[in-house]
Amino acid sequence: MGFINYNGKIQLNTVSLTTNNRAFRYGDGLFESLRYFNGHIPFLEEHIARLYHGMKILGYHSCNCLREEKALALITTLCKHNRIQDSARIRITVFREDGGLYAPEEDYFDFIIEASPLEDVDYKLNAKGLIIGISKAVQKPINQLSDIKTTNALLLVLAAREAKHSGWDDALLLNDKGNIAEATSSNLFIVKGQTIYTPPIEDGAMNGIMRQQIAHIIKQSDYKLCVKSLNESELETADEIFLTNAVKGIIWVVGYGNKRYFNKAAKKLVLLLNEYVQELIAPPSKTE
User: Fold this and answer.
1) Tens of pLDDT, residues 18-30
2) Distance (Å, rounded) from C-alpha 193 to C-alpha 240?
3) pLDDT for residue 114
4) High-pLDDT (> 90) share of the chain, %
5) Where are the domains of the chain?
6) What are the angstrom distances between the C-alpha of 247 and each of 40, 54, 59, 186, 278?
7) d(CA 153, CA 42)
8) Fold (topology level) of 3-117
9) Superfamily per CATH, domain 130-276
10) What does 34-69 look like in DSSP terms, one character per residue?
11) Could you write out the DSSP letters of every residue in 254-280?
């Protein structure tokens, strides 16, 4: 059955939440998805900073219970209880305590941490490329909630459902200006020659943690990074398309409509990503 961490305590994954739970009633919660590597979580500082930024926007009382060092200790202990040693998908969910209707009675929060084992001990490029399409069912609004990961994910649910029924592996979401914001759980990058493009945050894209790292890696490589608004026509003229998120790293796309893509840049970048991660999690060298 497995264990979770509920408000700092390890227990079996049998937590019963009441019908007054605000995440259930109103989507009044936030989450972060992270990748765990044998006692290390690359980019943990960035994940925690985004989580606390979201809590500030939603008006939660701030506390230090999920700050970086404490969060790592809680996650490491949870993985040990679940007998996970090498690699895991971690999800931290925070939600406002029960009480009130739309207006909450209090602004304190509860949290749950989950850990699921993964087979690969580092980031691996998907063997089979994704087929993607553009969602016509929903558009992503641009507002103060665009860049935080709330538990109210109906836009993504509808887009993912559309992808499933259309025979795609994933769907891209447009904003109300017709520009591409992101995929359902990933950021978008397209490659043209030696230039790699990604939508700006101002177009409704989540400022993904992996997006930030890949942007850094691109700048250190022989590719050029360009952040600009992208529309459907850009997909037709791209040499490559890939998606990024913190758990999977880089996911290459093989097709959009009748267009087919290569994955040369994606292959190179995933190697650079793994080198970068190993540098971050490697123990400090001993000096004489």
Assistant:
1) 999 999 999 999 9
2) 9
3) 98
4) 94
5) 3-117, 130-276
6) 13, 20, 28, 10, 16
7) 25
8) D-amino Acid Aminotransferase; Chain A, domain 1 (3.30.470)
9) D-amino Acid Aminotransferase, subunit A, domain 2 (3.20.10.10)
10) EEEETTB-TTHHHHHHHHHHHHHHHTPPP-STTSHH
11) EEETTEE---HHHHHHHHHHHHHHHHH
